[in-house]
Automatic annotation (TrEMBL):
This is NAD-dependent protein deacylase. The keyword Metal-binding applies. The gene is sirt4. The active site is at residue 157. It catalyses: N(6)-acetyl-L-lysyl-[protein] + NAD(+) + H2O = 2''-O-acetyl-ADP-D-ribose + nicotinamide + L-lysyl-[protein]. NAD-dependent protein deacylase. Catalyzes the NAD-dependent hydrolysis of acyl groups from lysine residues. NAD(+) binds at residues 58-78, 139-142, 256-258, 282-284, 300.
């Protein structure tokens, strides 16, 4: 399915915008049956019983903000196209791959960075303020939890709003890099072939041949989003921090994740080993359904917003 976006030049040199069709408002949330009131009551009891709730959130939490995910049945990237995300080895090993990645990311950034937190993000922030939520680990890189005001937060896979130099380790804001892209590519144009998760769009290879990519201002090194690409590993320090927060918790709630990626699934295994009760709120099956004492298949925002942090 393609979204007819066009990058076009505005009156001021170097400034660009994106014209987005109404199709952008398409629903990336998979269909689901009506909510089982009994299961919601049980989930309310689960939350009420917890005094130090540990939450893991995934892409299914952000689909309600208009960001597509990879695996949702019928509407995820894997279901809609045969395209796959950039692999870590491909990015670091090929200048052409980096050029293609950054061109796509440049076009998609204005839309991706404009997404707003939804009811689920706001609810989890209120639970933190109420003292119910002890720690939140998100597998998402969209910064929506931070935008909602979440503080007790680990971005397990990093954040697309930051950029890191692979040479010297300098971290900068993605928005600053956008301005550098604009300055280097004042005449560059492209028409996209669809929207993808993690802040980019689809472009044909010939569209990116003349796209120029800046290097680190400190050491001229290679710039990369401060996110964990497929095929890369989460740092040991981050994993240990999450395990430490989990050890302090007395219940785990998974929201909007199929847990297919081991980086998140490992914490379900750890919770089970520690006899920490687990509940899952997600549309469709997950890798950890057999570990949970409660599973609710429904939209995260719809269910979380009616629960009370009692």
């Amino acid at each position: 399915m393609s979204l007819p976006w066009r990058v076009f030049r505005k009156a001021s040199p170097g400034l660009r915008s994106i014209s987005v069709s109404a199709n952008l408002l398409m629903n990336f949330v998979p269909s689901t049956s009506s909510i089982d009131a009994n299961l919601v009551d049980r989930l309310q009891h689960f939350v009420s019983q917890a005094s130090r709730l540990f939450v893991i959130s995934g892409a299914g939490l952000s689909t309600e903000s208009g960001i597509p995910d990879y695996r949702s049945e019928g509407v995820g990237l894997y279901a809609r196209t045969d395209r796959r995300p950039m692999q870590y080895k491909e990015f670091v090993g090929s200048a052409k791959s980096r050029q293609r990645y950054w061109a796509r990311n440049y076009v998609g950034w204005p839309q991706f960075s404009s997404h707003k937190p939804n009811a689920a993000h706001r609810t989890l922030r209120r639970w933190e303020e109420a003292g119910k939520l002890h720690w939140l680990v998100t597998q998402n890189v969209d910064s929506l939890h931070s935008k909602a005001g979440q503080r007790r937060l680990t971005e397990l896979h990093g954040c697309a709003h930051r950029v890191i130099c692979l040479g010297c380790g300098t971290v900068s804001l993605r928005e600053e890099l956008q301005r550098r892209f604009e300055a280097l590519n004042p005449e560059w144009r492209a028409q996209t072939l669809g929207v993808a998760p993690d802040g980019d769009v689809f472009l044909e290879d010939e569209q990116v041949l003349h796209f120029r990519v800046p290097s680190c201002t400190a050491c001229s090194g290679t710039l990369k989003p401060e996110v964990t690409f497929f095929g890369d590993n989460v740092s040991k320090a981050t994993v240990q921090l999450v395990h430490d927060r989990l050890a302090e918790s007395d219940a785990m709630l998974v929201t909007g994740s199929s847990l297919q990626v081991y980086s998140g699934y490992r914490f379900l295994l750890a919770a089970k080993e520690r006899c920490i009760p687990i509940a899952i709120l997600n549309i469709g099956p997950t890798r950890a359904d057999h570990l949970a004492e409660l599973k609710v298949s429904a939209r995260c925002g719809e269910v979380l917003s009616i629960l009370q942090p009692l």
